[in-house]
């Protein structure tokens, strides 16, 4: 019993109660066994029947093989009886050959006598066919096959006669040549017909005449097959063994006729002629050829999509035509390059070369066939020469851009020095941040007319023109090189401007400086970072016109225009030019192009900072007359009604001067520059206010501060409060709600100074004010600020100040360790310097 059966039984009998089922299971197994036996018997009988049938077929096959063998023997016997055993077999064979020769002679006589007439008729047919295809591109070559057949017969006849007469006398050979010579005209006419067909291929297909191609292909394929047969027989040595006296000369071929080579040669000549026609048309401007090659691309597309499928794949018509046009375009380009064209022409060549490569790649992809175009044929000038051309172009364009930049610098220098006309006005769209009534940040979009230098867009226009040409070429190396070179030139212009405005600033200060209001001038000049002006000119006695010869009018306006120009250009470079041209280059060049644009940021920022600094110094210079009275007796009494002083208060003069300058600046400068200028002006003005006050007390006619003064007009705190109120109330309208916070914080330097000057127990209280108040507002405040006011106090001497300074420095050090610096630090007291 099998394992399967045992397993089945085990599954049926698992518990003791299953034993009562044994009898029924036995009957079930008996039925299953009977069923299996029946199926086995049937299958076995079928196999026996199949074996018997196959044995019967095998027996029949053996009988038929015996019959075939007997028949083959009979054939052999018949052959022996009819050939080898026939008497005079050699004689019969010779007679047969003689009969064949005589028949061939008769045929030759007839064909030779009629050969000229035959050719004349053939020539007329060829001429008529040629004229028909010339007259109509839709003509379907109705007689082409007939003409080819007749010409083939004639050429076979010619080959036979020329080969058959190689062993006869020269006279007879001369006669034979006279007979076959007329066929040369027929061959020439047929070649002309083929040329006409070949040159009409594309246009005929465009007109729907594809039958022309099919018939041409049929003829050339036939000729190619016959040439292949001839070559094979020649290689096997069979051609020399042919019996010329017995063969049918109508099928005789004595040499290869190379119709396929003729087809490719004439097709190439036709394509060359087409391309040369384009060159000749633009002979006056060869570079115009590259701008007018749409026909070539259309032609290649048509050949690839329409013409190529009509030819056998082995002909590779599309690839052949592509290669021919490539070779012609390459040759033409080399001829142009050898003439040493200008940089613009080189870029046009490179631009088309890139376009051509992309076009060929798309064309090959669209054809969905394996490319037979070599990789170096994707470039009309070749990779090696292309690299040289790229380098030459970069050298040429670099020199050109440097020359242009130098000329621009000369023009800009002259225009800034002469200032013969006001700056240009440009409508500038700005986004300004402010605070609403709930002190929430809001953005305001405004259009402002700002001053800019004449032709301020010229450098960026030059960049765009050169970069667009470089980008159109498709070569990232060229585009990045152009931008990098432009960036270097841009920075050279910035350096020139920095030199210009420094020279112009010194001229302005030579004519309009108020150094005479400084106390202990050498020290204060050093504090104000003023360069001493050595001049023998009597400035005080000069008229305005005479002063204008030293420093021409419009200096601040041109400074502002210069700052606006570089701010606008910087924004355009970063927001528009950088992302636009970054997308034009390969990812490998992204870092270089980003760096090229970013290299202009720091120089531009430094130039704008220098401009703002000079504007602020000019404004503060005009404040010197008013500031010269700070902390003096007149300052204490300024604005006090009991003094019967009718003059304008010092603080009012200051805010009027600042207001006049800043309102004017706001009318023609960008808000960003205006805001930064105002902040730096506040910092510089407040520092100047304090320095003038210290100098007047310690070196001038001012008196030391009495913390215990009781009279109101002699109270230092009251005077400071008065000035602070005037400053804030008058300057507040010049700023947005958001920027007024900086004004308020800056002016707190005066309030803190008042506290420092009037507090009791200064050695104890001043460190507390320094730590809890001053450093929280002026994170980088200089200790000299406190040192100066302490020296101005009547109740403090130098020994106390010297004892206090180290304590303050230690507090500042700990404050910086424990408190992060603010995002926008208040700069009025940063690096504050006062020499006692």
CATH C-level category of the largest domain: Mainly Alpha
From the N-terminal CA to the C-terminal CA, the straight-line distance is 125 Å
Can you name the CATH architecture of the largest domain?
Orthogonal Bundle
Q: Which fold does the CATH topology of the largest domain refer to?
A: Tetracycline Repressor, domain 2
**Domains counted in the coordinates: how many?**
5
Question: Would you tell me the overall average pLDDT?
Answer: 83
Integer-rounded radius of gyration: 54 Å
Number of helices: 29
Described by the principal axes of the CA atoms, the overall outline is: elongated
GO molecular function: SNARE binding
GO biological process, one term: exocytosis
Family: Belongs to the SEC6 family.
Keywords: Exocytosis, Transport
Q: How would you sum up this structure, described in words?
A:
This is Exocyst complex subunit. This protein is mostly helical. The chain has five domains: 3-83; 92-257, no CATH class; 262-381, no CATH class; 382-527 and 544-616, Tetracycline Repressor, domain 2; 629-836, Exocyst complex component Sec6, C-terminal domain (Tetracycline Repressor, domain 2). It contains 29 helices and two strands. A two-stranded antiparallel sheet has the order 1-2. A hairpin with a 5-residue loop joins β1 (424-435) and β2. α23 runs parallel beside α25 (716-731). The protein is elongated. Residues 521-529 and 641-647 have low confidence and may be disordered.
